[in-house]
Prior knowledge:
alpha/beta, 5-stranded mixed sheet, 13 helices, elongated
Amino acid sequence: MPNIIEIDDFSSPDLDAFARLTQARLRNRLEPEKGIFVAESPKVIGLALDAGCKPVSLLVERKHIAGQAQSIIARCKDIPVYTADNDLLAELTGFQFARGVLCAMRRPQLSSVEELCAGTDRVAILENIMDSTNVGAIFRSAAALGIDAVLLTPSCHDPLCRRALRVSMGTIFQVPWTRIGSQPSEWPQQGAKRLRSLGFKTVAMALSDTALGIDNPQLAAEKKLAIVLGTEGDGLSPHTIASCDYTACIPMSHGVDSLNVAAASAVAFWQLRARSTITNMISLHKNI
């Protein structure tokens, strides 16, 4: 029997995760053992549960308790399910409550780079990307286009923020990810060294007169490749470019100098996908 609780006091500390805690406080409060993130929509919450994330509480629009949130409530046994009508929930959260359900969940314990990269051929490195929409979109492309894992530099935006999760359509729970270092000083020199010790060659996606075209066969021939993407505007730091084995760019037309980093990631992931991924795609197509 679900533990349905009608909201009658907005000031209740039990609602802090949905109403009052900033992203930083959700992430850092009692972290790592009790850090919290908030997932939105049945699809995203379902993928988080599939990935083993532990639910803490649900916030559900009343009309969805017996509707689109029913299966999620059934999977989250014994946790409180706070509910009210849409207008009250929008007032509580500060945004339009459009998808019917939010779930506060425990943050998962991150793996080491070495654990995460074992047996992988293609990984993406996100350097200091601070736009949550771009982070979510890159994860979605990574999931769709054969990237085995995503590594984030210490200053990169949190993939478990609500907007990144929503933009990714929950694929953040389908692509393994972790931080490459805990302090900004650990990237790029120490990070690049760790990748080389794991057998990876690194390619910096950057504008340069000496950059290879992304379709250069030398890049596709690399067995293990780490694709390094930089923040919108500034791009990759000069130290990062110097630390990488290759620099590559996407050929542009009509005087356009570059793509948005999320769009560029999709092009790069598709062009540089591992041969094993191509073989699997061909086999899948033949079997359809």
